[in-house]
Structure formats: structure tokens, C-alpha cells
Amino acid sequence: MMWEWISENRYWLLGSVTIGLGLSLAGLAAVQWLLVRIPRDYFTRAAPPPSPATASPASRWGWWFVRNVLGLLLLVAGIAMLILPGPGIIAMLLSLTLLDFPGRRTLERYLFRQRLVHRSMNSLRKKYGVEPLEIPSE
């Protein structure tokens, strides 16, 4: 019965698998690209200042919208990578750097202090010849 369904829907199945693998590879590449570009002191420095007052309100809202949409997409990809191949936890942590919500900075620092998380992130940075991220104190 299952083989029958597979033979009848092989193109749909092949397309789904191809799209899934493509998204997994794209997510993995995006996580690595973002991870090596985070400043070394991102988790230890004070919160970044708000956007400059010289920027127009439309550009500030536009940037806020783009950041949050990308953050949500990366969060969904990270959740999917918990099941699919890829660094799901790292993707979810990186998505937090893009999203705006109360308590975000505290949550980021708490998650990064977890041994498995900072070791994974710093080993990936080492692979690309980038200095390790500083670990925040409690």
C-alpha cells in the first residue's frame, strides 16, 4: 500500500524532499554566515543604542519590520532543524538577535552561557578563523 502511494506520488515526493534539503542547506549556510559576523563582544557589551534619530521614521519602521521577519523565518528554520539536519539551537539563538521583544537581551545571554551552546558557536567560528565569542558573566 505504501509503495503504491510512493509510485503514484513520486514527483510530489521528490519535489518535497528536494525543497526540504534545499531549505536545510540554505538554513545551514545562513547560520554560518551570521555566526561569523557577530562581533566578538556581542554578548558581553551593553545593549546597542537605539537607531539614530536622524533616520526617518519610515526607514526605522522598515528596518524593524525586515529584522523581525528575518528573525521569525530564522526561528522557524531553527525549529525545523531540530528535526531536520542542521544547527537548530544555534539558528534559534541567532534569530533572537534579530527579533525585538522585551527581555530579549537577558534571554540571549542566558542561552549563550549554556556550555553546549557557546562551545558549538565558538567551534564553528574557529573553523572559519574568527575569534571566539566572549562568554558573559552572570
| Number of DSSP strand runs | 0
Strand content: under 5%
C-alpha-based Rg, rounded = 19 Å
The helix/strand order is HHHHHH
Q: In this structure, how is the largest beta sheet organized?
A: none
Structural class: mainly alpha
Mean pLDDT: 82
Total count of helical runs of at least 4 residues = 6
Low-confidence stretches: none
Percent range of helical residues:
55-70%
How far apart lie the N and C ends?
A: 57 Å
Shape call: globular
What does this structure look like?
The protein has 138 residues and is mainly alpha-helical. Helix content is 68%, strand content 0%. It contains 6 helices and no strands. α3 packs antiparallel against α4. The longest helix is centred in the first third of the chain and has 28 residues. It is globular. The model has no long low-confidence stretch (mean pLDDT 82).
